[in-house]
């Protein structure tokens, strides 16, 4: 211990490991794939198009980081088996999941949907060599953050002691993309080293083998700051520092820092809002198709789609970033918004 308590990232890692090992996260919060099957289906269709643009590699790895209940992957695989059997045949499914309990839930969810073998790994480095398409929804927000408070020209770090914050002189890690942000006196800068490590490893892999990734999460894509640590218990905000392991701790994802950390040579797409991304992937058409097929549930189906895409629901706060290498053409869904080539990154949809 190097301060007056436990470092916030150590506390958050410990709390979330206990939480995901012991609780049913989905009693406390609901994620996009749990709201509507259309979410996983649209991403399944996206995988098929990307696979085609990669030159139909056989085999290729279809990976997901932080699959939760396995709902997104199950919906994606059901769609792929029906509409893109050659892609379904070529894929090998690899799930990155640290919670043994959730691995069990995922195995059950995928038993009938996949009809292909599924492998689990603790990290990206376990996924076998070769072309890969990776999906991640609400994975990065669960990774542990540190918080630094601006004091004059320096920083203090927040530590957790007896359910409260204590501060001690410290420094934002050298080389962190957010280090030079003009944070006002007394305000908070968050860093998430595991997210940067993940994106760097993903980028290095994309330099070795062609592939693509889509990362969906709530967060911001501007040189911003502020305290975004939050805990949800029974769907309600709770004190994040109390009762470690009884609530899900998350922080907003800093897409700007993440984009800045992608190794050169890998294409970065977006980020853009979830609403605009899902619309580009055909949210309206698929929703109407399902509503026509099940008229008794049509209102519910349309309401779920609204919840995913409407700006005052999940459509604006949730953002989508893509990474790719070796792709013929633009990464689908991003309307040609490649970061760093003169097109806009940031708060545009
Ligand atoms: N993607 C799912 C679940 C999001 S919850 C959905 O949209 O419903 C976060 C998921 O990430 C859980 O499955 C959790 O166990 C997993 N997770 C959290 N930290 C992780 C880590 N460091 N490595 C791998 N998986 C992790």
Mind explaining what this structure looks like?
The chain has 349 residues and is of the alpha/beta class. Helix content is 38%, strand content 25%. It has 13 helices and 16 strands. A hairpin with a 2-residue loop joins strand 11 and strand 12. The C terminus is likely disordered.
Number of strands: 16
The biggest sheet, with number of strands, parallel, antiparallel or mixed sense and barrel status, is:
8 strands, mixed
- Alpha-beta classification: alpha/beta
What is the share of helical residues? 25-40%
Shape: globular
Give the overall average pLDDT.
Answer: 93
Radius of gyration: 20 Å
Element string (H = helix, E = strand): EHHHHEHHEHEEEEEEHEEEEEHEHHHHE
Share in β-strands: 15-25%
Bound molecules: S-adenosyl-L-homocysteine
Note the total helix count.
Answer: 13
Q: Ends: how far apart? A: 43 Å
Q: Segments where pLDDT lies below 50 for 5+ residues? A: 342-349
Keywords:
349 residues, alpha/beta, eight-stranded mixed β-sheet, five-stranded antiparallel β-sheet, 16 strands, disordered C terminus, binds S-adenosyl-L-homocysteine
Give me the secondary-structure topology:
Layout: E1 6-7, H1 8-22, H2 25-28, H3 32-35, H4 37-53, E2 60-65, H5 71-83, H6 85-90, E3 91-96, H7 100-114, E4 118-121, E5 132-137, E6 146-151, E7 154-161, E8 164-170, E9 188-191, H8 193-208, E10 211-220, E11 230-233, E12 236-238, E13 248-250, E14 253-254, H9 255-260, E15 267-273, H10 274-280, H11 283-293, H12 298-309, H13 311-315, E16 318-325
Parallel strand pairs: 2-3, 2-5, 3-4, 5-10, 10-14
Antiparallel strand pairs: 1-7, 6-7, 6-9, 7-8, 10-16, 11-12, 11-13, 15-16
Helix pairs in contact: 4-5, 5-7, 11-12
The structure holds S-adenosyl-L-homocysteine.
């Amino acid at each position: 211990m190097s301060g007056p308590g436990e470092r916030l990232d150590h506390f958050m890692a410990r709390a979330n490991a206990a939480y995901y090992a012991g609780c049913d996260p989905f009693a406390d919060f609901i994620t996009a794939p749990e709201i509507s099957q259309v979410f996983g289906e649209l991403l399944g269709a996206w995988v098929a198009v990307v696979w085609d643009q990669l030159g139909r590699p056989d085999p290729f790895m279809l990976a997901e980081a932080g699959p939760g209940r396995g709902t997104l992957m199950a919906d994606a695989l059901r769609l792929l088996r029906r509409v893109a059997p050659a892609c379904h045949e070529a894929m090998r499914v690899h799930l990155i999941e640290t919670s043994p309990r959730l691995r069990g839930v995922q195995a059950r969810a995928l038993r009938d949907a996949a009809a292909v073998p599924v492998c689990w790994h603790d990290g990206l480095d376990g996924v076998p060599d070769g072309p890969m398409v990776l999906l991640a929804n609400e994975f990065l927000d669960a990774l542990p953050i540190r918080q630094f408070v601006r004091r004059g020209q320096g920083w203090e770090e927040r530590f957790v002691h007896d359910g409260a914050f204590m501060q001690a002189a410290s420094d934002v890690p050298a080389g962190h993309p957010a280090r030079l942000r003009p944070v006002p006196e007394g305000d908070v800068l968050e860093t998430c080293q595991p997210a940067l490590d993940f994106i760097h490893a993903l980028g290095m892999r994309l330099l070795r083998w062609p592939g693509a990734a889509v990362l969906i999460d709530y967060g911001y894509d501007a040189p911003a700051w502020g305290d975004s640590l939050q805990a949800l218990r029974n769907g309600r905000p709770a004190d994040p520092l109390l009762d470690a392991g009884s609530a899900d701790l998350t922080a907003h994802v800093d897409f700007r820092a993440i984009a800045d950390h992608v190794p050169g040579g890998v294409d970065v797409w977006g980020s853009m809002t979830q609403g605009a991304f899902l619309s580009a992937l055909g949210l309206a058409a698929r929703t109407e198709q399902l509503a026509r097929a099940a008229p008794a549930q049509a209102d519910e189906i349309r309401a779920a789609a609204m919840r995913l895409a409407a700006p005052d629901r999940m459509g604006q706060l949730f953002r989508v970033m893509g990474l790719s290498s070796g792709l013929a053409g633009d990464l689908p869904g991003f309307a040609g918004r490649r970061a760093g080539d003169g097109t806009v990154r940031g708060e545009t949809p």
